[in-house]
Amino acid sequence: MSVYGRLLRAVIFDFDGLILDTETPEYLSWLKIYEEHTVSISIEEWAICIGTSDVLDPHKTLEDRAGRSFDRVELSEQVRERRMDLLAREKLLPGVLDVLNEARALDLKVGLASSSSQSWVLGHLESLGIADRFHTIKTREDVDHVKPDPELYLRAVEALGVQPADAIALEDSYHGLCAARAAGLFCVAVPNPMTRHLALHEADLLLRSLEELSLGSLVAGQ
Q: Which residues are catalytically annotated?
């Protein structure tokens, strides 16, 4: 089975923004806080932190723009409550279940590589009823460096028992794309409303939705 001349043995998913849109609720929750203090933060500014960690400190940015300090614990709780309320309305993103089913039909191994915490990822996967569809799940606790470092993908392919060149990565963010390509995986980018502002043109395949992805076509090299 080949992906443009490669052997295809595994598919590795990102989580946030690809399986479940957790990114829009996070941004909207912070945006509301900013607006309550008569300042703002654009999607373009926020998008630089998607898919990684420690790039943007929303508390400090708010304090810098508002010209005053805030109780970080109180702010974090406000954001958490709003984010969870918005997240409760989110569903599995289109095409995710189709890709999982096709991977199973093609006897491909399925992994997940996320810069988020294990509790965050597993909690949502279990709520969505798809936790058992992954042969391995690698999160920030499993590595020294999160995306855009390739370590998460290298750990995932190692756990699946395949070579990087034999796997494809499904990503929605620039940092994730960089990580997958640095690890040597074929990368399919599927931007969402938050990440469509990012430069994803270096992906091997750029789609509007996972509904457009045909693993069978990639296997056939089409």
A: 14, 16
For residue range 172-183, what is the model confidence (pLDDT) as tens digits? 988 899 999 999
Q: For residue 142, what are its two tokens?
A: 């499993």
Contacts from 44-47 at CB under 8 Å and sequence distance 24+?
44/197, 46/194, 47/173, 47/194, 47/195, 47/197, 47/198
| Same domain? 71 vs 29 | yes
Burial of 207 (0-12, 13-18, 19+ CB in 10 A): middle
Residues 170 and 114 in one domain: yes
pTM for the model: 0.88
| CA neighbor of 204 nearest in space, from 152, 144, 164 | 164
Number of domains forming the structure of the chain: 2
1, 2, 18, 5: which is closest to 188 by C-alpha?
18
